[in-house]
Amino acid sequence: MNSQAPLTRMLVVLGIVSLAFFAGCGGDTSQSFNNQPPTITTTSPNSALAGGAAFTLTINGTNFVAASIVNFAGTARTTTFVSSTQLTAAIPAAAIASAGNASVTVTNPAPDGGASNAANFSIASGTNPVATITSLITSCAPLGTQSFALGVIGSNFVGSSVVRWNGSDRPTTVLDATNLTAQIAANDVAATGTASVTVFNPAPGGGNSNSVAFIVAAGGVGPASIAVDPTGKFAYVANGGCPDTFAGNVSMFGINGTTGALTSIGSPVAADFGSHSVTVDTSGKFVYVANDGAFEVTGGSVSMYTINAATGALTSIGTIAAPCAPPPSPGSCASFSVTVDPSGKFAYVANEGGFAPTSVSMYTINATTGTLTSIGTIAAGGRAIYVTVDPSDKFAYVATQSDPPGSAGDVSVYTINATTGVLTSIGTIAAGVSPSSIAIGPSGKFAYVANSGSNDVSMYTINATTGVLTSIGTIVAGLSPTSIAIDPSGKFTYATNSGSNDVSMYTINATTGVLTFIGTMAAGLSPTSIAIEKSGKFAYVTNSGSNSVSMYSIDTATGALTLIGTIGA
Q1: Are 429 and 435 in contact (CB under 8 A)?
Q2: How far apart are CA 446 and CA 490, in angstroms?
Q3: Do the beta carbons of residue 225 and residue 529 sit within 8 Å?
Q4: How confident is the model at residue 93 (pLDDT cuts 50, 70, 90)?
């Protein structure tokens, strides 16, 4: 006889009792991961015509899982899990062959799970209508832009409507009866001209809609900034892109050293969204473009290029993203302005961000490849709009705007570590309302800030030892001055006025730095930026409203500008 059997039975009984006790007292530490019942809030589309073509049904709701199944008219359909709040299902033509109502539900598998509420899908008798396009969400793109989603607004769109580009179908998403989006490939906008955009509704009935023109611009659209290379042979323009697509690019020009006339160098090269500022490094080997992300299309970035020394043509070497923290953090997005220090070792980017205060990104430059490497950010005194470095390479200055709009801004001042490139803040000084640009004279003794909100220019002296600015007053400019530049001799200053479509001209007192107004010169529509080539004989102004560049000769004795022509951006 086994003497241990009673003891064993006793231990088993005690174990069962103990487990029951702990379970009853909340001692069960196991977790349940049962599926929740799904819920449907909306479907898109929510109707179709009997006899129509197969289509994709989008279901929005809650508690969807990877194994969720969409049931349409009582039959499980091929389902794609998009997220916990969205599914899509392939609905065959046979499912809508007859008029009536179809029930749409979602089923989650066990454990738990179950069926959702039912959404009604109407299958109407009759024929598909002919669609009508009323407008496109952007009707243009610069040559060589990236692929993008084209928005189409109109009426009578059905679940199987397809956008056609010059008669060829493009991948289309039906949002509702009045809104579609279509994916337009880069090769669709690889040649200049006008494309025909239509919407096709299939049989029964249906057919092609009216045609709406989409323009592929020969040059840049929305030129925002211009820079001239140190040799004076080439100029580069950052183009912000068409409204609502904001796919930026860079136009390239050769400069006639005798006449100052610009000649286009091939097609613009692609940049990122919302190209806003362009600069050339001091060696003349690299170009950098700050892309502001175009109202949160992206967080912003800097595009990098090498320059062909013989032709001036650019070759992309990639982009570096703005240092946005997820979710986008104040001060780290919307790269608004870029500059390279005189040594060519460091680059600095003002991040406008849309908040106050924002930041300045700091980068080292690979002298061989031109690639940027981040070395961190530093806070600015407000929304960082424009950054520049003084000729001694000891100080950096950032024009910052304040919130709310219409209030006075500042200039943030920094020292530069000559070895590492890291900036150290040494304070701020008041500027006018909405400062938009800052220029340092070649002597390093004077600084000038264009204030777009107060229609004036702030003037400062620079302490050569500390970099600190001291105000020496303001002088009136035109309406909404956006950019300011100083000629290489340090005798003249020019400010572009986007509100009055002209350029204000000033002489500089070599002793005091005070400006004297000498008149204005007409520009194109909404001038945004001005650059002066190295000889000081020619100036160039980008006009965002007329998609052009104005070219001027400079009277080296008086500083007066004379228009010598315009060229498309």
Answers
A1: no
A2: 9
A3: yes
A4: confident
Instruction: Look up residue 521 and give its amino acid.
Output: M
Place of tokens 């049904």: 57
Record the pTM. 0.68
3-state secondary structure 427-453: EEEEEEECEEEEEECCCCCEEEEEECC
Span 223-568 CATH architecture: 7 Propeller (2.130)
- When the pLDDT of each residue in the chain is averaged and rounded to a whole number, the result is 89
Nearest to 347 by CA among 293, 278, 275, 411: 278
Domain coordinates of the chain in residue numbers? 39-124, 132-217, 223-568
Q: Residue 28: what residue type?
A: D
Q: How confident is the model at residue 353 (pLDDT cuts 50, 70, 90)?
A: confident
Q: In what order do the strands lie in the sheet with 515-522?
A: 481-486, 492-497, 502-508, 515-522
Architecture per CATH, domain 132-217, reads as: Sandwich (2.60)
Among candidates 487, 485, 482, 486, which has minimal Cα distance to 545? 482
Q: Rounded to an integer, what distance in angstroms lies between the CA atom of residue 316 and that of residue 61?
A: 43
The CATH fold of domain 39-124: Immunoglobulin-like (2.60.40)
- Predicted pLDDT at 115: 94
Q: What is the DSSP letter of 93?
A: G
Q: Distance between alpha carbon 42 and the CA centroid of its chain, in Å?
A: 31
